[in-house]
Amino acid sequence: APVAYWDYAVRLGQIPMPNAGMTISETGYSTAVNNANREGVDETTQAKYILDVLMDAAKAGIKATNLYELVDQRNDTTKTSKENNFGLFHNDWTPKVAATAIHNLTTILTDGVGSVTSTSTLAYNVTGLSAVGKHMLFQEANGVQDIVVWSEPDIWDEAGRKGIAVAGQQVTITLPTAVTGYAIYDP
């Protein structure tokens, strides 16, 4: 899971550079579920892990996160080659679940021109999150404010090579005043 290695990876990547933001040069998850070393996950888990990493990076102030890689290197119907299955798209350019999830997240968090900042000062409170739950506030250039809530429980059974079902949790977001015209999304 992304959260398990986050602090370690961030420390490794810190090189002192005055006035420069930190970037993640390469991160991703292989969908080689049948890899002999159990180094792959299914497409749904890949999507969840990538969204977790993108949100963890944003919360940590990372300026750019580069995902490895755009398209699978080769058509691997056996799903055994780790390196051939890192893509957000299959080798024939059809989207994996991760590509759709990223598209949905970026569509939700932007104002139509790709502009989003995290400088809003909206007072809000989130209750009901587990120990691995997180939240972050974004503000779009058009003034729309988005509160992102996510959780990072263990969702992959390496031995069984399958996803772990996780029960949903009731989370409450409290705002200083009543709000109308809100929406809830799940990318």
Derived from helix and strand composition plus strand pairing, the structural class reads: alpha+beta
The helix content, as a percent range, equals: 10-25%
The CA-CA distance between the termini, in Å, is: 19 Å
Strand content: 15-25%
Order of strands in the sheet with most strands: 3-5-6
Shape descriptor = globular
Beta strands, count = 9
Which helices and strands occur, and which strands form pairs?
Layout: H1 2-12, E1 23-27, H2 43-59, E2 64-67, H3 97-109, E3 116-117, E4 125-127, E5 133-140, E6 145-151, E7 156-157, E8 162-163, E9 172-174
Parallel strand pairs: 1-2
Antiparallel strand pairs: 3-5, 4-9, 5-6, 7-8
Task: Walk me through this protein's architecture.
The chain is an alpha+beta fold and 187 residues long. 22% of the residues lie in helices and 19% in strands. The protein has 3 helices and 9 strands. It has a 3-stranded antiparallel beta sheet. Helix 2 (43-59) runs parallel beside helix 3. The protein starts with a helix and ends in a 13-residue tail after the last strand.
Offer a quick outline of the entry:
This protein is 22% helix and 19% strand. The chain contains three helices and nine strands.
Features:
single chain, alpha+beta, 3 helices
